């Protein structure tokens, strides 16, 4: 037997361990992130663009420094509780390997330190039996997938398709160096150009054969078009425009919970995309996160960043009673989990996970 054949064993003859077509089929395996060694990234115009003015000030003041140790510890505990809840419901949970995010790296023209390994949803897009590494626009996330590489190699050895989008150069020409917030009423102006394809996986939402995408401060038109061509005729990638002043990731604006059930943030989605007109649409309840709670990289609307375990069970933040009641009103059982400390780092249940396998098949729901 050749060395490669020995390494792969009989995996190529087996079904892929990676298979996922939407956001609601029964969850069987998931990657849950880790917050260990999280650092504020070096200051850069692309880092500041999605943030509020107050958040930008904090990121500038603490650039390159570790996040507060007590907040890291509290978020770590919540991630462990999330993993335990998922495992208790029969879901296989995989975790990445901790890394040193204070280490400097670079290429000709720029250098950076890292951020964290907390949000696998940003890095990895699973479509069918393929897991795709995203070409991320933040220099501090240039090597973010490294912590997940052992898992990706394992999935590949067991039969999954593993793809990486073209690795971006992140040259100065990708960024609008004099970018400023657009005045109220003006169209969105991204901090990134069309120099090369970039996207975060969290700017895409899967509805079976149809995938909705938004341009943002990390995802450009070339990135969306790259994915459209890569996936081919089996999928339809639709670009939607949302009313978000600081867009970065679609999963706190427009979230499908089950076939025909859509959760939206009303201000960002003043008009539901025409393809979803026949779906029942409900507006996310007003967040209950107190003003005193630190949110370094997100708005309070992270409350709608829920994770469907299946069509009838939804992971919800333990203190978010309004979201739990909304789930119940729709015939969905809320599964509460403490996650407010993790929210401080810029995400919630959907961000903190990548669903690797859901039991279902490719079909159209629109």
From TrEMBL:
It is an enzyme of class 2 (transferase). Keywords: Transferase. This is N-dimethylarginine dimethylaminohydrolase. Its EC number is 2.1.4.1. Belongs to the amidinotransferase family. GO terms for molecular function: glycine amidinotransferase activity. The active site is at 200, 249, 351 (amidino-cysteine intermediate). GO terms for biological process: creatine biosynthetic process. It comes from the Bacteria. It comes from Actinoalloteichus fjordicus. Transmembrane segments: none annotated. InterPro entries: AmidinoTrfase.
């Amino acid at each position: 037997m050749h060395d490669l054949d020995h390494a792969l064993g009989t995996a190529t003859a087996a079904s892929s361990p990676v298979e996922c077509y939407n956001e609601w089929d029964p969850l069987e395996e998931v990657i849950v992130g880790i917050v260990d060694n999280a650092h504020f990234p070096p200051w850069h115009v692309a880092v500041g663009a999605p943030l509020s003015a107050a958040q930008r000030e904090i990121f500038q003041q603490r650039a390159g420094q570790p996040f507060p140790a007590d907040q890291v510890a509290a978020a770590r505990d919540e991630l462990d509780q999330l993993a335990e809840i998922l495992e208790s419901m029969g879901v296989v949970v995989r975790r990445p390997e901790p890394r040193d995010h204070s280490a400097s790296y670079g290429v000709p023209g720029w250098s950076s330190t890292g951020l964290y390994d907390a949000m696998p949803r940003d890095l990895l897009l699973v479509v069918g039996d393929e897991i795709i590494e995203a070409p991320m626009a933040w220099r501090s996330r240039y090597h973010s997938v490294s912590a997940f590489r052992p898992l990706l190699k394992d999935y590949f050895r067991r039969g999954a398709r593993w793809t990486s989008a073209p690795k971006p150069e992140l040259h100065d020409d990708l960024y609008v160096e004099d970018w400023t917030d657009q005045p109220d009423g003006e169209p969105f102006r991204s901090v990134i150009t069309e120099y090369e394809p970039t996207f975060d996986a969290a700017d895409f939402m899967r509805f079976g054969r149809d995938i909705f995408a938004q341009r943002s401060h990390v995802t450009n038109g070339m990135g969306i078009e790259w994915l459209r061509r890569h996936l081919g005729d089996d999928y339809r990638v639709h670009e939607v425009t949302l009313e978000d002043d600081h867009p970065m990731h679609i999963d706190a604006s427009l979230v499908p919970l089950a076939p025909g059930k859509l959760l939206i943030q009303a201000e960002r989605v003043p008009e539901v995309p025409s393809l979803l007109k026949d779906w029942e649409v409900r507006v996310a309840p007003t967040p209950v996160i107190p003003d005193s709670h630190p949110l370094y990289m997100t708005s309070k609307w992270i409350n709608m960043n829920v994770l469907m375990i299946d069509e009838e069970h939804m992971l919800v933040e333990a203190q978010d009673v309004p979201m739990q009641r909304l789930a119940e009103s729709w015939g969905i059982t809320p599964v509460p989990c403490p996650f407010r400390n993790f929210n401080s780092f810029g995400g919630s249940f959907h961000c903190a996970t990548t669903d690797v396998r859901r039991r279902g098949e490719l079909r159209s729901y629109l």
